[in-house]
Every structure is written in C-alpha cells, then in structure tokens.
Amino acid sequence: MSDGDAPQIWITGDPIDPRAAVEFLVERYPRDTVRYYDYADMEVGEDRRSPVDDVTLTDLGRLTCIGAGLTYERSHVLLREAADAPWPELDVAPLTAHAGGEQFVHAEGVAAMWVLFDYWTSLGGLAFGTVGKLLHIKWPDFVPITDSEFLGVYQERAVKHHNASMGIKESVGDQRAPTKTANVRAYWMAFREDLVASSDGLAHMKELLRDLPADSEQTVTHVQRLSGLTDLRLLDALVWGRSRGRV
Fold first, then answer.
1. Based on the structure, what is the number of domains in the chain?
2. Range of the domain at 209
3. Phi and psi of 10, rounded to 5°?
4. What is the mean pLDDT of residues 26-36?
5. Tens of pLDDT, residues 68-92
C-alpha cells in the first residue's frame, strides 16, 4: 500500500506508509482500548485528561482497560501514595517542544517528569508500563506508554542515549546502561526523535483518517476518536503494532 511521495511515519529508522498506518489503526488496533482507556467512555470533544495531581478510581479503571496488570495491592499503592507523589508544579511542554540530546535531559519539565516517574517505579511492583499508562492520561502529549512492546522497539537506541548522556549517568550514580534496559529518559529521547521525524507523516495520516469512507456507525465513532488523539499517542499505537508485526 503506497501513497506516492507522501511523507512517511518513522519508527527507529523504518518507514510506515500513512495509508498502512490508517488501515492498522482502523481495522486492527483494539477499539475498546481507545474507547475506555483514551476516552474513559466519554464523547469526542469532552475533557478526558486525568487530574495531574492525584490518582483517581477512574484512572484505575482506565488502566485496567489497557491491560496494565493491576492487582488490588498495586491499586492500593497508587491510591495511597498519590498524596505524597512529586507532581510537577509547572506546565510540562509537549515532548516535541523540547530540544534533543543533553538539553533534553536538563529541561525543567523533563527533569520534573522523571522525578515523578522514578517515584512511582521505586515503590516496587509498579513497572514502566503501568506508570507510563498512568502518566500518559495525565500528560498525553509528553508521556508515551512505555510497555514491554515500546521498550523492546526502543531498547537499543535508548541504551545508546543513556550511555552518551552525562546528565543521565550522573543522576543514576554514574551508571552505564546494561544491554537490555536504560533510564526512562533515554527511551523518551529515542521516541521523541521518531515523533519529530514523523510530524508530516502523522499529519497526512490524520488527513486520511478524516477522509476515510465509513462502513458502519461504529467505524465512524472509532475514526473520530482516533482523530482526536495526540500525535504522540497515535505513534505509540503504531509502535505497539510494529512490535507485534501488525503494521
């Protein structure tokens, strides 16, 4: 499936044609995930962002609907420890608004978000995926869903970013990254590169979504929901699909 000279969407150096991306999102990405996790079963256009200074029962329901693997113990930790969490006291700019490289690591919003991410993962029992899914619904244009599929796709590039960054290594005790994992900021850096490179391709993909003929009322609603997601979330969904060989 090709769209001539249309801009491409990029995942770690590999292109995805925007038409192929649309086909995947409409036909193969789980519709209920978008309905219940991204939209909390709200109508398109409603403010669905989760409070940025608390964990709510609605948050837990949304996490369950994207397979965050919550047990009642983990749910209790999220609710109980939210009051002491270091929620950022500043507006966190979109991921693409930050410069790359070492400037990214030292950006005020990035540093504040890492402190929050580290707070949750250091409590024990809360993996990158669960924390990423929680924070994404609060900052949907900054925090990607760092689940196992995401980590697998960006592992190699993230390890390189970790080991090249004095700021990251110093903040974790001058530790180099092992071969299979890295500090979450290095994953954000790797994902940001694709998000910036894919800007035109994602814009074209959204145009194709808006022009897509609808074959059912359910498809119309799903396409409307997809069209309302941030570029970050759409690329994140494509990363998930790429990791599973579906796009």
1. 1
2. 15-243
3. -120, 135
4. 97
5. 889 999 999 999 999 999 999 999 9
